[in-house]
Amino acid sequence: MVGPEDDSGEPVGDGQAGHVVELVWPDGRTETIRVGSDESIVDAAEAAGVAIPYGCLYGACGTCTAELLDGELRHTTHPRALKDRSLDTGYVLPCIGTPETDCRLRVGHGIQAEVVGTPWR
Ligand code: FES
Questions:
Q1: Does domain 19-116 have CATH number 3.30.930.10?
Q2: Ligand 1 centroid to 14 CA: how many Å?
Q3: pTM of the predicted structure, to 2 decimals
């Protein structure tokens, strides 16, 4: 099943504050988006017309798993889909992640498999 639409309807701020996030796909394609201080990276990407994988939008399914290459990102709620070891090695959940600095993120469907496929579960 594909995840439902986000129906939160919460305000996203005025969009002026925030940080620049560069999204990097495995094929080398990149997109740069601006993410407001109260906005998740998935929300900002959607608003910019940039498609990145997502499902639940609340940190449980892991579909959106990405790797933080540079910068700092804060999860606004507990990232249930990621184990501590994955978090320690730089994996993040953009659906509940908002940047604290300008960031570079590796995104794409294959990244969730890297996390799920680890032998230390
Ligand atoms: S969309 Fe489900 S964890 Fe991010």
A1: no
A2: 24
A3: 0.83
Question: What is the reported pLDDT for 50?
Answer: 97
Contact 101, 69 (CB under 8 A): no
91 lines ligand 1 (CB under 6 A): no
Ligand 1 atom nearest 64 alpha carbon: 4
Give me the sign of the Cα torsion angle 107, 57, 49, 109.
positive
CA of 51 to the centre of ligand 1 (A): 14
Distance in angstroms (rounded) separating the CA atoms of residues 41 and 47: 10
3-class DSSP string for 37-55? CCCCHHHHHHHCCCCCCCC
